[in-house]
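Hey, I was hoping to borrow your eyes for a little while. There's a protein on my desk that I can't quite get my head around. The fold is given in discrete form, as structure tokens running alongside the sequence. I'd be grateful if you could look everything over and explain what you see. Here's the protein in full, and shout if anything looks odd to you:
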Amino acid sequence: MQEALISAWQSYESLRNKGYFKTWITRIVINKCKDHLRRAKYTCPFDDNAGLFYDMQTRDVELMDAICRLEPKFVPYITLRFYNDMTYEEVAKSLRITVSTAKYRTKTALRMLENILKGDEGCD
């Protein structure tokens, strides 16, 4: 996260339209996260994160588990749309796709989540 903020600070002047700041900074964070995951195999000991779940409601833990079980390519659509409260337009700009593609993939991800939560791992 610090790397993303430093990168954003250093290249802020190159941002042509300041109205797209939120989308621009989100894209920088996503790219820095991808870079980090590429450099190091992502492994996270359970002990380090166990405390995060103690205060969560059972329903929230089940939802987080279902999101973790989604195909990785669908996770950004759920997190950007519902956890970051982005519009479909903002999601599309952040992921450099069309708005219709953002809507379609978000709805596909929601169907997959519904199937996971119902206990049916398959989609459709």
Observations:
- DSSP finds seven helices and no strands in the chain.
- The first helix runs from residue 2 to 11.
- Residues 1-43 form one domain.
